[in-house]
Each structure stands twice: as structure tokens, then as C-alpha cells.
Specification:
alpha+beta; ECO RV Endonuclease, Chain A; 7 helices; 8 strands; globular
Amino acid sequence: MPGTEPEPSSRAELLARARALSGQALGAVAARYGVAVPADLRRRKGFAGELLERALGAAAASRSGPDFPALGVELKSLPVGARGQPLESTFVCTLPLGRVGDLEWQASPVRRKLESVLWIPVQGQREIAPGARLIGEPLLWSPSAEQEAELRQDWDELSGLIGRGRIDEISGHLGRCLQVRPKAAHSRVRRAAFRPGEGRSDELPRGFYLRATFTARIVNEHYLVPVSERTRRP
């Protein structure tokens, strides 16, 4: 079985481990833990994130809570381009179709996941082989009051539509910071949901995602110049 690190005992230890990975290639880290590197990421989009979980000691026992439950920290890898710009939206959590309409923002899985996030940029350019992609400087982040208000507004709008059985009206265009998108291996996968007047129904699983425009604001705020220029890392 591939190796893995023990859970860190503090946020300081977690951040120190993440900083030690900065500047290393994914292939070198994978070799250290006995993990095979895929030739491409078309069927292994989660490769970088899974490798970082292993190297940092993420418990990953419950997908409804943060990756480091004792520390209250979620781990998110962030594929970035040559100038440090996020290349895609970031998965937050699976949408709890059967009960989302009953959850207030304070108790929502989105808030639990985003309350404290360890962001780790990773080179995401397709022309760079997965094993050669470099890991960047980590950032331990929590949303500002303004950012949380924006996230809450999106949550209220999207969860309200789902709770009223109007899930068919939701598309990736809704939400300023958050968006809802399908989250399933194929179109035949179904999860239980509720539609007023119809009762239980089976729906395509969906997930909450952070828009790349939102994560770009985080990058611009905390990395004073593009990461690739500042440290020659992603």
C-alpha cells in the first residue's frame, strides 16, 4: 500500500509540511509515497489533491467535514496557469439534495468546508506532464466578512430554489461566487431529492463549486505578484 503521513497535531505543523512541499514536482512527491503518476489527468483529475492529502496527513474520513477535522482545516489544490491565475472552478462539496432546503448558512456543508482552507497552488498547464508539475506556496485562508456575505447570498439563493423543488431552474450561470454543477461519474447516477407536490424523486447528483473568478480574487489578494514570477513556483 502507498505510504501516507500521520495527521498533523497543529495548524503550524500542517503549514510547515505544506511549505516543505513548495517547489517540489508532483512526480518526486509521488515517488516518495509509492504512488503511480498518470500519463495524463483526463481520468485522474483528482490526482494532485489526493497526493497532497497523503503527503500532508489528511484524515479524509468524512467528506461532509474538513479534511483535517481536528484542526478544522479543508485542503484544496488549485491548478494555476503561468501567471498564477486559477484555471478552473474548485469543487467544495456534494449538494445534499434531500435536505438542502432545511439548512441555514451557518449549518451548511459549504460553510463548514470553507471556514478555513489550506490552498496549495499547483501548475496546471496541459503542456506540462503531471509528474513535472510544481507545487506552489501554501496559503491558510479564511473568508473575510465581505466574502462570507457573498457566499451566504449565493447559498441562500441556490438552496432556496432546491428547497422549493425548482432544481431544474438551476444552472452553472447562477451564483456570483458559488455555482451548482453536476457531480457524477456518468448521467445514470441518481440521488434522492424532494419536489413539492411530487414527493421523493431521483436526481442527478450535483455539487457546489467556487468560481475561478472568486479564487482569482484570493490569489490576487494574498500573492502580491504572480506566483510563477515571485518564486518561480506555481
